[in-house]
């Protein structure tokens, strides 16, 4: 019988081995698959178990966290939600995260390994770090000025510090309160459905995610390309441009809204926004040179992150001359985000240097120890410094005695450029009024703010004056706020 | 247990050391570990030691001490590992149930479990005190089997709970009589096989000209197959597949140990295959369990959320190698039966593979000590009883642990000592008492001279 008892014992040992092997499979080998299964609530429970870190503007939190005592314990709250929604995005328990909430999620949720006191510490102890903080470059006064300026209109504002690339304001209207999407209740799903169905698209971040035809503001890029290419030496020399201008290879004739564009100088054409002069200038400069300069400003460069993702601004590179002529004045397929146009303005103000725009100054631990900080980074030189000086002169003229007079600030050097873009089939859509500008205090070595404003303006007519009418005052208010704060 | 007392000069009768001091020392550890776990739960949840820690430790300590005294008085040669393992597992079970109670404020199971543990220890002491010789049980073989059958049949007349008719509800108490039937059946099988093993081993006809594969004659086979069919039939009616599997496994193991005939294993496996196939495809309750086992995430894909098995697998996976720590897991997501059938998932999540392996090895050690007693004993009944009781523990652990970790289809059973359930914990204490008794007999018998 002893032999058979030993065999039965061996059988029991076999059962033990089977259990241990299977337990190792479930707990170690395959555990990742189980952990990541979307039906496994553990990751969500852990994620919302502690308060989410805050996003700071001017040293003050614009976000918060509410303890609900439910299974998913903490819900995101926002102070001044609609004002900062284009900056923060939302952090929802149902719909995930967007913009800064998404880009800096590791820090805010506390999972970033850099938050741990020691490397690998958390992997061993399973400790969770308190959510870190994200310190933005946004200036509350500038943000508020931009938001108030847009008022009830549809539009967007992006403001930069030309010297550093810091984003001072990022506004999109109409906006929404991201707090409505934080939790899991039916109110949240209702809000989500309502916001998505809203024809005004309040969740669309027009400053970053939407591209618009830049209209005449793109003439800054065209002028930079022409000046860099050496086609024009003297800003005051006649350009030998006909008015009207027949688009090459077609019988379509392009006209101007203003007088005196025939054979006008570049200074006059820029000041009063002569389409004929810039269309011809674009064709004369050539597609490659124009596309090259546009690319150096940041067009056709996908993947820009500030760290929120920015839609790619485009300049077509396979066009006939008629299309090139239209593209040179910011029509046809040319499209830009408000942030991109603010970068164009900042490059002119900053001697041609394009600084990497960034929204986050630094990320810190809960205690305030810096985890990562962003410094000034030069992306490219968009044009020769000499060209930049000439363009500054042209843009200053626009504000001093041209279409952008509404943006003038007493005692401050302001440069600007107006724009109006038609869109829709047969140009039936509400026109976009543009204004891009920069401002430099007397005595300062550099301009301290560059801004781009776009407004969907029902009152805008075909004239570029409208850009100066509805968008320039907003730009002025934004620049004033930036100047007084800085 | 034979080599420890080797002496150079032959002595007519050498007895092994009693090892009661070892047992007491191990018991201290077995009490302190759960107390530590209890404090750990409190520290993890509220940052403070739970107020009941001292009382809990004292209660568990007193139970362990009383059991130890009973063993010291009436079974002085008993295996010193059995009682500490039982106390440790029971204590760990109480900690895990207490920990899960924190998630269900309306339902506190730990105090009830402590009461049942006390009853279990009392019965343990009773058995150790009043059952002086295990061979007495052999006389009650037929009384055992009749009682076992009655115990299994009675619940059929009570309403089903969660699809299984295995409970009797009287007043506020619910009892699972099938748990007690396990011991009685083990006694009967051991007794019957000890009496008839020669007949079973040496008669029969050869089939397919295989000399080794001899089937026993119907005359010998008849009674035992009848008992087996009856018990399995009752269980299928009660839809308690786990216990059915346990009885079947117990029956085959004891038959093989008693006769050494591989033919029995062939017959057993054949019967098991046919039975499993028939029940698995015909009985909807069991069929769905098999489907869940094959496709644990089917309900997720169907948009109905994870089922219990999926939640159990998630819990084990969340534990990883080292576990989340007591009180820091989310095994309560399993929902219903988290404290009973799925208690192991909490252990897996919060103690990790490390803790789970330790628990498995504790069970393995318990089984091993039972087998060791079986090897050392000389009377066939005692040997078969020891093997049977140890095999009950081994099979039960395998069936339920394999079920909740997705190794085999899930069947509702209680993890011995760990799971919430009064009948189960009481039964397991009696099993350990009987193992104490047989191991005492095994180690107390004089060593044969030639081996001294």
TrEMBL record, chain A:
<dbReference type="GO" id="GO:0005886">
    <property type="term" value="C:plasma membrane"/>
</dbReference>
<dbReference type="GO" id="GO:0008658">
    <property type="term" value="F:penicillin binding"/>
</dbReference>
<dbReference type="Pfam" id="PF00905">
    <property type="entry name" value="Transpeptidase"/>
</dbReference>
<dbReference type="GO" id="GO:0071555">
    <property type="term" value="P:cell wall organization"/>
</dbReference>
<dbReference type="InterPro" id="IPR012338">
    <property type="entry name" value="Beta-lactam/transpept-like"/>
</dbReference>
<dbReference type="GO" id="GO:0071972">
    <property type="term" value="F:peptidoglycan L,D-transpeptidase activity"/>
</dbReference>
<keyword id="KW-0732">Signal</keyword>
<dbReference type="InterPro" id="IPR050515">
    <property type="entry name" value="Beta-lactam/transpept"/>
</dbReference>
<dbReference type="Pfam" id="PF21922">
    <property type="entry name" value="PBP_dimer_2"/>
</dbReference>
<protein>
    <submittedName>
        <fullName>Putative Penicillin-binding protein A</fullName>
    </submittedName>
</protein>
<feature type="domain" description="Penicillin-binding protein transpeptidase">
    <location>
        <begin position="155"/>
        <end position="480"/>
    </location>
</feature>
<dbReference type="InterPro" id="IPR001460">
    <property type="entry name" value="PCN-bd_Tpept"/>
</dbReference>
<feature type="domain" description="Penicillin binding protein A dimerisation">
    <location>
        <begin position="52"/>
        <end position="134"/>
    </location>
</feature>
<dbReference type="InterPro" id="IPR054120">
    <property type="entry name" value="PBPA_dimer"/>
</dbReference>
<feature type="signal peptide">
    <location>
        <begin position="1"/>
        <end position="23"/>
    </location>
</feature>
TrEMBL record, chain B:
<dbReference type="Pfam" id="PF01098">
    <property type="entry name" value="FTSW_RODA_SPOVE"/>
</dbReference>
<feature type="transmembrane region" description="Helical">
    <location>
        <begin position="243"/>
        <end position="259"/>
    </location>
</feature>
<feature type="transmembrane region" description="Helical">
    <location>
        <begin position="180"/>
        <end position="199"/>
    </location>
</feature>
<keyword id="KW-0812">Transmembrane</keyword>
<feature type="transmembrane region" description="Helical">
    <location>
        <begin position="140"/>
        <end position="160"/>
    </location>
</feature>
<feature type="transmembrane region" description="Helical">
    <location>
        <begin position="414"/>
        <end position="436"/>
    </location>
</feature>
<dbReference type="GO" id="GO:0005886">
    <property type="term" value="C:plasma membrane"/>
</dbReference>
<dbReference type="GO" id="GO:0015648">
    <property type="term" value="F:lipid-linked peptidoglycan transporter activity"/>
</dbReference>
<dbReference type="GO" id="GO:0032153">
    <property type="term" value="C:cell division site"/>
</dbReference>
<feature type="transmembrane region" description="Helical">
    <location>
        <begin position="49"/>
        <end position="69"/>
    </location>
</feature>
<keyword id="KW-0472">Membrane</keyword>
<feature type="transmembrane region" description="Helical">
    <location>
        <begin position="264"/>
        <end position="282"/>
    </location>
</feature>
<feature type="transmembrane region" description="Helical">
    <location>
        <begin position="112"/>
        <end position="131"/>
    </location>
</feature>
<dbReference type="GO" id="GO:0008360">
    <property type="term" value="P:regulation of cell shape"/>
</dbReference>
<keyword id="KW-0133">Cell shape</keyword>
<feature type="transmembrane region" description="Helical">
    <location>
        <begin position="383"/>
        <end position="408"/>
    </location>
</feature>
<feature type="transmembrane region" description="Helical">
    <location>
        <begin position="81"/>
        <end position="100"/>
    </location>
</feature>
<feature type="transmembrane region" description="Helical">
    <location>
        <begin position="220"/>
        <end position="237"/>
    </location>
</feature>
<dbReference type="GO" id="GO:0051301">
    <property type="term" value="P:cell division"/>
</dbReference>
<protein>
    <submittedName>
        <fullName>Putative FtsW-like protein</fullName>
    </submittedName>
</protein>
<dbReference type="InterPro" id="IPR001182">
    <property type="entry name" value="FtsW/RodA"/>
</dbReference>
<keyword id="KW-1133">Transmembrane helix</keyword>
